[in-house]
Design brief:
Blueprint (H helix, E strand, L loop, with lengths): L5 E4 L2 H8 L3 H8 L2 H16 L3 E2 L9 E2 L5 E7 L4 E2 L14 H10 L2 E6 L5 E8 H9 L8 E2 L1 H10 L1
Parallel strand pairs: 4-6
Antiparallel strand pairs: 1-7, 2-3, 3-4, 5-8, 6-7
Helix pairs in contact: 1-2
């Protein structure tokens, strides 16, 4: 596997004690991309990029770095990972290639975390140009959502 850019370390016992929940519940929460994304966005914005959160949930990006560049935060979960905008993912939503390509042109890149490795979560900084190359090569499937195995394979090649 490619050497990660960095790693987030958490103490499940401390989290469980602070929240008064079981270690199993902590693990379930921190390995669910929909739930842990709010925490990861903050860690990445403040600790990794030395920047800030997007001004709103509908901003079209998740975080700004210290230079004002826009980044998306994504998690590799059991189900995999997607690179298209969030508004294209979910029930009744459809992938739109022009919208995806607009997204790539508007952001600096992605910070991708392997949440399945919790409590020691590696992350990678992936520039938008790399994701665009993967798309052009047909390596992101037809809707930019790929399996966990494919994502880890692409990271190994970086």
């Amino acid at each position: 596997m490619a050497t990660e850019t960095g790693r987030f370390e958490w103490d499940t016992g401390e989290i469980a004690a602070a929240l008064k929940i079981s270690n199993e519940d902590v693990r379930a929460y921190f390995t669910d991309g929909r739930r842990v994304s709010f925490l990861l966005e903050r860690r990445i914005a403040y600790d990794v990029l030395h920047g800030s959160l997007a001004s709103s949930e509908g901003a079209g990006y998740d975080v700004l770095d210290e230079h004002g560049r826009k980044w998306e935060v994504r998690s590799i979960s059991r189900q995999g990972i997607y690179f298209c905008p969030s508004y294209m993912v979910g029930s009744g939503r459809a992938f739109d290639e022009p919208g995806f390509l607009e997204k790539l042109a508007a952001i600096e890149g992605y910070i991708v975390s392997d949440i399945q490795r919790f409590p020691s979560v590696p992350y990678w900084v992936i520039r938008a140009g790399v994701v665009k190359r993967w798309w052009d090569q047909g390596r992101l499937g037809t809707a930019s959502k790929i399996s966990r195995e494919r994502a880890l394979s692409l990271l190994r090649e970086m």
